[in-house]
Design a protein that fits this description.
Strand order of the largest sheet: 1-2-3-8-6-5-9-10
Largest sheet: 8 strands, antiparallel
Helix content: 25-40%
Radius of gyration: 17 Å
Number of helices: 5
CATH class: Mainly Beta
Shape: globular
Strand content: 25-35%
Structural class: alpha+beta
Length: 164
């Protein structure tokens, strides 16, 4: 009976992997778009992607994908990226506000997502991780330095994608 269960889980995992690879690039882009928002800062537009099982599978590869998925299941995390239109001084301080509460985000640098100068045209990428999970089915706002703000209100489609 244990062997049957193991083979059943292996078959389900193989089906899930096939489904993921069968998505067209348009379908993948549409899924990422459901979980993405932008914020305008002085000289840069930052793109925030809410990480969940669907978006992690599309954005990350290899064994790091599974570690990232585990992190995203334990806390609310956003993948952040952008390219400055001019030389900027970056101060990656982010706060998420939801229902009158504030949650400080910890910036995790992948490339240039750290305090300091970033030259025009340089890629910025990293993660913003909250210490806890928030209810992402309810509206929330990510606020950055200055008046940078990205409002999230997930669509019914996005909420359905997270449930599957």
């Amino acid at each position: 009976m244990i062997l049957s269960a193991l083979f059943g889980f292996a078959a389900m995992a193989q089906d899930a992997a096939q489904t993921e690879t069968e998505l067209t690039s348009e379908e993948k882009t549409a899924i990422i778009r459901e979980f993405s928002r932008t914020a305008q800062m002085d000289g840069i537009i930052l793109n925030f992607v809410l990480l969940n099982n669907k978006t992690v599978d599309l954005l990350f590869a290899g064994s790091g994908k599974y570690a990232m998925r585990a992190r995203a299941n334990a806390a609310t995390i956003f993948y952040v990226q952008g390219t400055p239109e001019k030389d900027i001084k970056l101060d990656p301080q982010f706060v998420v506000e939801q229902g009158g509460k504030s949650f400080k985000g910890k910036a995790i640098n992948m490339k240039n997502l750290e305090a300091g100068s970033v030259p025009k045209g340089s890629q910025i990428s990293g993660l913003v991780q909250l210490a806890e999970k928030i209810d992402v089915t309810q509206p929330f706002v990510i606020k950055g330095t200055g008046d940078a703000e990205a409002e999230f209100k997930l669509s019914e489609k996005a909420i359905g994608l997270m449930a599957n």
